[in-house]
């Protein structure tokens, strides 16, 4: 049985109110909600008395007029917000804009934070939809003008406040619409009202799917894939790759990585909840800390990931010459990857997490690529090739603990920054970046592997600029802070160590 539809608030944003097509659409939508068994109320902005201008530097400090106090109460009560307004000059009328300026103030609709985008929506759990009348043809508005009003309302306004816009319905061209066409508009608006509950359920399903995508943290997968591919290309030489087999091997890695990030969210929750400086690079995916997914769902996802990884490995082993080595290596990869946060290993709590990540994302995946492509398991080549990659990973994984330092210490997660302090972490990141360049030059000189000479030259320039940035940003204390620019420097540094050798093969 589906959850009951929460109260619906229909905000009529036309300055002529009910004496307009928008007014009729708003009433038709509300009636459709009521026909479907829901509660709906129309808030006609043309009848409200309020100053539409923000007069104070702090919008929250400007006292709300009685009509806005009541409007705020209605918004707090509603679970679904419907905005009905005409498209004027590409966006909304001034009356609606002024209403939003005065009502959606810090402390009620959002708050400023040191994490994420810098803002946190406070109207979470609510959904919205827009009913917009216009004279501009749809292709012109969307393709040529870029739908500025839709984006301003749905993305720049409602999304920032934590409200998910489910549907945007256009009604037009109004100017040439005859009586029959306008009756069709009203019938359509009523239908939207009746289907409001179904739209919310679809929105919940979409939100759940997006939460799983967010939990995967796909931004970190390309480097792993390139390191794996480097191992496979080194093993194949001039023979070419068996791509179905290579991609099956990567499926084992992808599923293991997915299981790892899911368990990281579960076992790092104590730190993530405390973290006030998270970003796209640090602090986990936030899906558990924010309640988008449950602990049980993430653990079930982790089990599924491990199962897929094991199944893909079993298929690979069937056609492998060194079956035991291949199967055993994937087992090592799974244990060490999951052991980053999972008990009993909990390597990230023992100041071994950085080394664990460097090993699994360099030696482990590169050697697996080598094995999948038929390489000799006793050869030194994949280990030599992986050493500079592993060293290049250490700066970014070390610095990722800088914004989390206070939360990690409180949770007992002893990363390098948490145990030794920020200045030591910056120094370690600089030292390992230099060592990665030295290792690449040494591999080029000693082994003659293709691409490592040019890699050392390019990486040396990047490392010099990176170390310079570290020196300039060297902290004087251990207070947590966002270091997004340093994270970009460190993460892009890794790419050279897999991309340059790959292009030379």
Describe what you observe in this structure.
With 505 residues, the chain is of the alpha/beta class. Helix content is 59%, strand content 8%. The chain has 19 helices and seven strands. The strands form two sheets. Strands 2-1-3-6-7 form a five-stranded parallel β-sheet, with helices on both faces. α9 packs antiparallel against α11, α11 runs antiparallel to α12 and α18 packs antiparallel against α19. It is elongated and about 85 Å long. The protein starts with 7 loop residues before the first strand and ends with a helix. It is found in: Membrane.
Would you kindly provide a brief summary of this structure?
The protein is of the alpha/beta class. The chain is built from 19 helices and seven strands. The protein folds into two domains: 8-210, Rossmann fold (3-Layer(aba) Sandwich); 217-504, Farnesyl Diphosphate Synthase (Orthogonal Bundle), CATH 1.10.600.
Give the oligomeric state. single chain
| Rg over CA atoms | 28 Å
So how many helices? 19
- Give a quick account of the main beta sheet: strands, pairing sense, barrel closure: 5 strands, parallel
Look at the structure and give the CATH class of the largest domain: Mainly Alpha
Distance between the termini: 58 Å
- Structural category is alpha/beta
Query: Averaging pLDDT over every residue, what do you get?
Result: 96
Quantity of strands, as a count: 7
- How are strands sequenced across the largest beta sheet? 2-1-3-6-7
Q: Note the beta-strand portion.
A: 5-15%
Total domain count: 2
Order of SSEs: EHEHEHEEEHHEHHHHHHHHHHHHHH
pLDDT < 50 stretches: none
**CATH architecture group name of the largest domain:** Orthogonal Bundle
Shape: elongated
Q: Helical proportion?
A: 55-70%
The fold-level CATH name of the largest domain is Farnesyl Diphosphate Synthase
